[in-house]
Structures are given as structure tokens and as C-alpha cells.
Amino acid sequence: MRKSSYRLAAALAAVALVVAGCSSSSKTDTAAADKSLEIFTWWSAGGEAAGLAELENQFKAANPNTEYINASIAGGAGVNAKAVLTSRLEANDPPDSFQAHAGMELDGYVKSGKLEDLTFLYKEQGWDTIFPADLIKTLTVDGKIYSVPVNIHRANVLWSNPATNAKAGVAKDPATLDEFFANLEKFKKAGIQPLALATEWTQAHLMDWMLLATLGPDAFNGLFDGTTSWTSPEVAKALKNFQKALGYANKDAQNLDWPDAGKLITSGKAGYFIMGDWASAQWQSEGLVLDTDYTWAPAPGTVGIYQWLSDSFTLPVGAKDRNAAISWLTICGSKDGQDAFNPKKGSISARTDSDPAGYDNYLKAAMESWKVDRLVGSTVHGVNGNNALMAAYNSAVGKFYTGGFKDTAGLATDLAAAYEAGKA
After folding, report:
1. Most exposed of 53, 180, 387, 400 (fewest Cβ within 10 Å)?
2. Is 3.40.190.10 the CATH number for 7-151+311-365?
3. Are 39 and 69 in contact, with CB atoms under 8 Å apart?
């Protein structure tokens, strides 16, 4: 029987299983025997923290005698958190569950033997028919499923401020790169910083979108299966477009994280911001109103394409509170859990049976786009490459940016090396 509600976890707390957490093929254990649960994420502020708090509340309601420990490490896209996590895993001191993106990001954790197989939990909870089959594939290695997705985010979103658009004479959202650059010129002439940008990973995020917008989805995907060369003329054109876009960005980008860059939009100081839809949740947590204080459109050149990522939670090998972790994962995958978490996080549910009534107009539109758009993974957020590739990818962009973003041929060479680093 399918069990989709977090309330099941509370019921299970009254059941003593014959084998208490000794095998990943057993039925779901309860948190009753565990005095604490340590959850490791990079969600420390804004909508991200608010979404995590919803899951925490549900866990506490189901497991009132288990202490919840929030071990979040601040830093955009998890750059800081992943460094700490790597050290802990190498020291055989894992948290009870940690956040990881669906896709190739999981690959290194699985191959190094750091994660338990969760296939048993999928069968028990009916998730093998509730989560989209293509999403489950990104969580699967050698036929085994290694994490529970809590959401779907869209990376390729263009954010702007209606009042700023009006001031610059920007009458419509740009659908093409030509229209994008033309509007950047309008902002510039109006004395408005055309493009908001932040630190290294946001620069890589911008480049990842520009590669997709210039190459198209097939050639973009080819970058990560070896059928498109990183040193091809097509990539050279994309990197020239990236270089051109950087020329419109704020000069203090290296000193900002993405929420700081986002404030340039909401305060009317900048025209456009290419960022994932978690930005909307951040702004709503600050009291801003969608379609009044800020607005959105698919990023230019990618209309009809959904560049996606998914946050998920894992069960590390050697977790001290394994029973509590399984209770946590059950809540994360439940309908109630996801429909409480995602409206606050600024993402849509990973489940196919969620109720859109609780989601805002942007998220309702995202739910519809997810069903019909061409789906392409986000590199910076772990879909297309493992942690080694992502680290080298970000580093290549950072080197290019701090060098004055002049050497596009050198950037192409460094990106090719990043791809090879991910294969090693």
C-alpha cells in the first residue's frame, strides 16, 4: 500500500521492527531509539531556511522525543558546505542525512561507498511510481537509488523589477539573446547597472545559461557526453557572448553572494539577474511581492527549455542515528512534506501528485512548464557533472573573471580540463 503522508512516520514510531536498522532491505525503522537527528545542508537564510523549518516541524511532530540538529553551513550553491562535508565523510563522521543535488553530484559519494541504497524505501513508500521516472534515473547508480528528492528548481530564470523596466523603457521581456543585449543597452543609457552578478559560482551559473542559450539543448548536452567539443567554434561563440554579458555586470561581483546581487534588482539599482527560482522565495521572505516588486521570465534564448536541478537527501553509511534519518527521509518524500517545504523554498514538488493550490503564480507556471518544456540539467547544480567537475568548472570561470574576462580561448581550454577532471 502506498504511504505518502508524513503522519505515517508517527504511526511507525509505535512499531518495533524485528531487525532494527541492520539492513537497508528491511522495513522503515522508527526514530524512537535515536535521541537526535543531525541534518546537514547549506540552507541557512531566507526562503531556504524557511522551507527547511517546515520539514523540521513535521519531523518534530512525528518524533517529539528526538532532538533535531540543524547543521547548516552558509554559502551559495553549497560551496562551503561541500568542503566541510567532504572532511567529515573522510573522517567517518557523517551527519545523519545530508543535502545533495540529483544527478552526477551523487556519483562520487556512491562510488566512494559513502551512501546507503534507498531502493527499499522507494518500494515501501510507493515513490517508484510517484516520482517521475526520469528524475529517479538521476538518483540511480547501477540499479540502486541513493537519495530522496524534495523539489525541482529552475535555473534559467530572468529576474527584473517592473519599475526599473519602465524607467529604462524596456517594454517586454527579451526572448532572444539579441533582445537581451539590446535591453542591457537601454538600462545602461538610463544610468542603471544593466546586469546583477555575484561571486564565482553565480558567474558559472551565468555562463552555464549562456552556453545553453547559444548552443541549444542538444549541443549543450553534448558537452557532457563528449559529442560537443569544448574547443569548438560553437562554444567559442557562446563564451564570447558570456564575455559580452560580463561587461554589463557590476564590478564588485566577487564581494557579493547571490542574495546581495538580488537586492540590486529589488532596490531598482540593476536591470536583469540570471538566477534560479530560489530568488523568488528569498525576496518573499523579505516581504516583497511577486509581480509588483519583481517579475520573471524564462531566460533569453531558452524559452521552452527548463534547465532544472533537484535537491535531495541521503542516508550516509555509518549514520549514528539511522532510524531517525529514515524517518526524516520518509517525511522529505511525502506529499505533506513536499507541499509544506516547496512554497517556502521557491521550488516545485518532485512528486507528480502535489496540489498546486498552495503554490504562488510563478510556481504554478513552473509546474506547467515542467510538464511540457524540454528538460536540460544544470551543470553548476550537480546534474551534468560530479563534484570534481563542478569545482573545476567554477574555478575556470573564476580565473577567467578575475583575469579581466579577456581570454575566452583559455577559458575553453580550462573548461575542457574541467570535463576531464569529472571523468577521472
Report:
1. 53
2. yes
3. yes
